[in-house]
Write a structure and sequence with these properties.
By secondary structure, the chain is an alpha+beta fold. About 60% of the residues lie in helices and about 10% in strands. It has a domain of about 140 residues. Strands 3, 4, 5, 6, 7, 10, 11 and 12 form an eight-stranded mixed β-sheet that branches. The longest helix is centred in the middle third of the chain and has 37 residues. It binds flavin-adenine dinucleotide.
Amino acid sequence: MTYRAPVQDIRFVLRELADLDGVLALPGFEEISDDLVDAVLEENARFVEQAIAPLNRSGDLSGATCSDGEVTTSPGFRQAFIEFGQGGWQGLQHDQEWGGQGLPKLVGAPASENINSASLAFSLCPLLTDGVIEALTAVGSHEQQLRYIPAMLEGRWTGTMNLTEPQAGSDLAQVATRAVRQDDGSYRLAGQKIFITYGDHDMAENIVHLVLARTPDAPKGVKGISLFIVPKFLVNDDGSPGKRNDVWCASLEHKLGIHGSPTAVLLYGSGKGDVGEGAVGYLVGEENRGLEYMFIMMNAARYAVGVQGIALSERALQQATAYAHERKQGQALEGSAGPVAIANHPDVQRMLHTMRALTEGSRALAYFAASAYDKSRHHPDEAERARYKSLYEYLVPVIKGFSTELSLEVTSLGVQVHGGMGFIEETGAAQYYRDARILPIYEGTTAIQANDFVGRKVLRDGGAVVKALAAEMRTTVAQLEKAADAGGADSQGLALIARRLAAGVQAYENASKFVLANAGDKLRAVFLGSVPYLMLAGVVHAGWQMARAALACAQHANAGTATGFHKQKMATSIFYAAQILPRAEALALTVLEGGVAGDYAAVLPEA
Ligand SMILES: Cc1cc2nc3c(=O)[nH]c(=O)nc-3n(C[C@H](O)[C@H](O)[C@H](O)COP(=O)(O)OP(=O)(O)OC[C@H]3O[C@@H](n4cnc5c(N)ncnc54)[C@H](O)[C@@H]3O)c2cc1C
């Protein structure tokens, strides 16, 4: 077995940190029992370990190929996707109205983590399909929902997201693909999209492209972008795929990683196919509101990419841990009869603990956010729904930016634990490192997440969520101090966590005050520190979750119900506080010194 889903840690986070009971008690989820959640997680683990994980390496070695405008995916991907659809995995967290299973995001997110750990390249197809389903559920017409969503939920069709063009990457104001309205109400699209994930493939009968384009009289900039559905095959009245539409794969990109995921250049309106000139498209919602709609999909996808970071970190951690116990080098520090497993050396322990702490911390934060999402949609009280919505929206760029940046650190440490063998492809450690590199880039780079975080999530509400979170984190510090004072086996560890979390919260508050105070006249200084500020928020919020985990473990110890798992978790939480939380203070300093440094940042050599 190359990978085991971390079901025990997932269960712990869901129950002890993310309020699974509270979520299952919400209106709409009453039918879902604790046992059902366990059964879904078990079955998901079995499926991804057996059907998906073996595709990871083969997909890396034999990537997708493109010939005559059509893409052939890596061996085994097609069959696995059929099984994925038949297993109902695409529909897990989507509305029952369209054939989904209506489970909370709190259950969907771990299922998605596991499939991404098994094969990131494979999982991108369901990930983008999820986003299309979510966007159409929110803003599609009833007819569009009926036509496209059930087929995607069944895994017969898939979805893509078409934003990027050669001149329009982070800056979507520059989208130039044209859409011209026809007499029958449909549109004809022409233009080129690049970097389109699963833009073409052979895993499903049809592909539902969601495309950003401009109508001829649209205003300039982001206010003139509309959203269209462009199916690869037009859909017949009986719902079957019909005429071949005018959208073709011109080529696939050669990439650093995720070779199994076809990244396509797509041509719209090149005159091929069965429909004449121009790809046939259907407007979603109203003209010129496309970017607003696409944000629904992007928020879902950004959260999901954050989870991809956790997924790759988990897989790299498992492999490094196994290797560190097998590989024997050097004597133990205290002396030993012969070479010992490298897991015996303090620095290898530091690397493995860092990998574990970052992986488990970002997992806990992501599922805490998933719980907020479910409450934002299902809580009976309107004010509570609004409060959870703000919290979730605040956390999305943090989860995307923090978990993906840290997956680079974790997968790099994974290579380091392997020594020279880590640099050799056969071990697989190098693949995780290569695959992880895209995560802080697509679905908005870390800088774009930080712009969103500072501009929309912190400044817009005058720091309301920041203040509420700081108060909650301080309550946890007080609980830790009390638990430490009560004595017991881990009291020193709990006191350490209380100290470091208190310092981390202080750093977060100081940096937040700087951002709020200087947004008016020192905007450049604030944005010079926007990525460090986002990372600071991630370090402290994940550290808070690890601190809550330590409190839960201490309670188990007091009640005599602690297991080996709880002892391990306590160790990881203490390690997080000792070795990761101190980063918060350094990150805060880089934000605060922006007041002066901001004036110098533009002093760069000419290109
Ligand atoms: C493998 C892969 C798969 C992809 N899949 C899809 C897909 O399915 N659909 C799709 O539409 N796109 C997709 N993309 C495109 C991806 O979303 C973009 O590459 C990404 O958003 C960055 O845009 P860009 O490459 O044009 O970089 P640029 O926008 O040119 O950015 C270059 C650098 O400038 C920085 N920068 C740019 N603007 C700002 C700013 N305002 N503030 C601060 N810094 C800034 C960036 O952070 C980055 O460091 C994919 C890309 C890849 C490589």
